[in-house]
Predict the 3D structure of the following.
Amino acid sequence: MDFWPEFLASSWGREFVAGGFGGIAGIISGYPLDTLRIRQQSSNSGSALSILRRVVAAEGPAALYRGMGAPLASVTFQNAMAFQIYAILSRAFDSSVSAANPPSYKAVALAGVGTGALQSSMLSPVELVKIRLQLQNTSSLSASSHTGPISVAKSILKTEGLRGLYRGFTITVLRDAPSHGFYFWTYEYMREQLHPGCRKSGQESLRTMLISGGLAGVASWVCCYPLDVVKTRLQAQSAASPQKYDGIIDCLHKSVKQEGYGVLWRGLGTAVTRAFVVNGAIFSAYEIALRCLFNNGNIQTENTI
């Protein structure tokens, strides 16, 4: 009965809930662009605009949101844990700084790397299920077609076991560790540049949150994009289909040999556009929810825009 009041009374509880709001805002705002990115990466099927037209015509607009249940169902916990882990590690890596002052940029980057590596254990199975659903073409229904994330997860466990659910785990860690280092460092650096003193006061404007969060997302994707292409191709494989790639190096070698080095950057424009929108929404929702919870519903900022 008293769990939620006590949970929200603690700073950990408030940060957890705020992180969940941020994750949900990010998923909803950027999922259609993520579907287009996945389809661009998995095969040489044209530009994002041509894929968009083809998907809407053949499968309907709802196809752009196919598989959203998997990340949306887990995003509250996943995103909240990511922000919690980051907060703990950033202080641990800079223990000499008092709680009243923000951690150094070095501690921020190291905490981001640690956060990315740790959260991969939660993220990898979710992304595997999401990718399988996003690449499923419902215009040609078959007995093997899946109706949702639970159906995909059950099928993977039945045919490939628990190990199959973690297909692509290594490449996910290699992608997420450095990208999260760039992610949090860029956000903290840019918000301070756009609004000097805000890292300590916490009173930056909504515009600063949106721009800083958006640029953080762009930086994190650009630094790791080739690894993301490899991850998508590895996770798109299933035990029921012919195995095109035997691992990370084999996938990288075959992809470049068959399609050129440009394949490693295919879909980057879509990914960067999505990253700016999604991460601007994530950080804005997180910061606003956090202030609302800590100030009993009163959002305090120097400027609304």
Summary: The chain is about 75% helix and 0% strand. The chain has a mean pLDDT of 85. The longest helix spans residues 11-42.
